[in-house]
From TrEMBL:
Its cofactor is NADP(+). PANTHER family: GDP-MANNOSE 4,6 DEHYDRATASE, GDP-MANNOSE 4,6-DEHYDRATASE. It comes from the Bacteria. It comes from Pseudomonas koreensis. GO terms for biological process: 'de novo' GDP-L-fucose biosynthetic process. The lineage of its organism: Bacteria, Pseudomonadati, Pseudomonadota, Gammaproteobacteria, Pseudomonadales. CDD domains: GDP_MD_SDR_e. This is GDP-mannose 4,6-dehydratase. Residues 5-311 form the NAD(P)-binding domain. Keywords: Lyase, NADP. The gene is gmd. It holds the Pfam family GDP_Man_Dehyd. The keyword NADP applies.
Length: 322
């Protein structure tokens, strides 16, 4: 039985990846940071809460990261833990830098010293492209991050590349574009919109305040994207891969799809609130997943319309039960 360690297992991707690895017969360990309230709801939603070995730890605490690597003796480590909300990174730039940046070194160093055969996946991000330097971004596009989050993740990306080149570790970096699901955190724009549309439809909310609705994102489904993570660690050689759909859409159009699905016109409810604009915006992201398709045989299976409908259906049911 293969052993895997997932950091960030209580997050959206952690829950989908835990399900995927358990279905493949892995023993799954999860690094979980101490929280004062329940953080395992996504694992319950995925029906995997009881099947995971939980290890206490925090990415900012090198000792706990090291202990988790030694205790789980992993064949594969998936580093998904992060302060992942871009907007919050301007308010917590140092924490974001430690967890999303230096935390990666804690993990790589533990692997180098105690488990050098372990294969490593780093959750890198299209936010590293920021102020885009090419119309469609791929593995060769120069980076230009636009937030403390993007800057911290760029450090995490390059330290992964550096440990691969310096110590011959099987360390891969997945440069993933936005991916969503019914398990997405409520602060991210897709879930904020599907939750609000469901509440408005059911008379529990009157309007929805948003920021820059002209921003464009390349949105995919988290369930498809965790398969790409796993595939990267099954290759003979470690490498970097862009994972995206190759389609970009405005926040405005995403709102239209969500509200349409419940028979409402988003224009009647969406208000623009400057409080949700960012100090520096990433206006557009559009990925080119050709390498992932060629080398990994990976293709996205879920288009935006299907994804938003899936999220709307889940939120309509959840809001009705409240
Ligand atoms: P998410 O839902 O925000 O999950 C983040 C996870 O990290 C949670 O389990 C969280 O634990 C954990 N975490 C936060 N701080 C930690 C710390 N100091 N020590 C240990 N664990 C900590 O994020 P996601 O959407 O699943 O994304 C997974 C990863 O992919 C992240 O690294 C993100 O930056 C990256 N990424 C995401 C996307 C996307 O569109 N979703 C795209 C590209 C890259 P708690 O639940 O206890 O807070
Ligand atoms: N969250 C939010 N709330 N975003 C809004 C709002 C709002 O009210 N109004 C407009 N937006 C715009 C943001 O300005 C941004 O341009 C876009 O919607 C998407 O915002 P988020 O859903 O918060 O995601 P993100 O693109 O900033 O970051 C996500 O994707 C990255 C990959 O590109 C996160 O998952 C990151 O962790 C991930 O790395």
């Amino acid at each position: 039985m293969k052993s895997a360690l997932i950091t960030g297992i209580t997050g959206q991707d952690g829950a989908y990846l835990a399900r995927l690895l358990l279905d493949k017969g892995y023993k799954v360990h999860g690094l979980v940071a101490r929280r004062s309230s329940d953080s395992r709801w996504r694992l319950r939603e995925m029906g995997v809460e009881a099947d995971i070995v939980y290890l206490d730890g925090d990415m900012a605490d090198a000792c706990s990261v090291q202990r988790a690597v030694i205790q789980s003796a992993p064949d594969e480590v998936y580093n998904l833990a992060a302060q992942s909300f871009v907007a919050a990174s301007w308010n917590q730039p140092v924490t974001t830098g430690i967890v999303d940046g230096l935390g990666v070194t804690h993990l790589l160093e533990a692997i180098r010293q105690f488990s050098p055969h372990t294969r490593f996946y780093q959750a890198s991000t299209s936010e590293m492209f920021g102020l885009i330097q090419a119309e469609q971004q791929d593995e060769n596009t120069p980076f230009y991050p636009r937030s403390p989050y993007g800057v911290a993740k760029l450090y995490g990306h390059w330290i992964t590349v550096n440990y691969r080149e310096s110590f011959d570790l099987h360390a891969s970096s997945g440069i993933l574009f936005n991916h969503e699901s019914p398990l997405r955190g409520i602060e991210f724009v897709t879930r904020k919109v599907t939750d609000a549309a469901a509440r408005i439809k059911q008379g529990k909310q009157q309007e929805l305040a948003l920021g820059n609705i002209d921003a464009k994102r390349d949105w995919g489904f988290a369930g498809d994207y965790v398969e790409a993570m796993w595939l990267m660690l099954q290759q003979d050689k470690p490498d970097d891969f862009v994972v995206a759909t190759g389609v970009t859409t405005t926040v405005r159009e995403m709102c239209r799809i969500a509200f349409d699905h419940v028979g409402l016109n988003y224009r009647d409810y969406v208000k623009i609130d400057p409080a949700f604009f960012r100090p520096a915006e990433v206006e557009v992201l559009l990925g080119n997943p050709a390498k992932a398709q060629r080398v990994l045989g990976w293709k996205p299976k879920t288009d935006l319309d299907t994804l938003i409908r899936m999220m709307m259906d889940a939120d309509m049911k959840r809001v009705a039960k409240e």
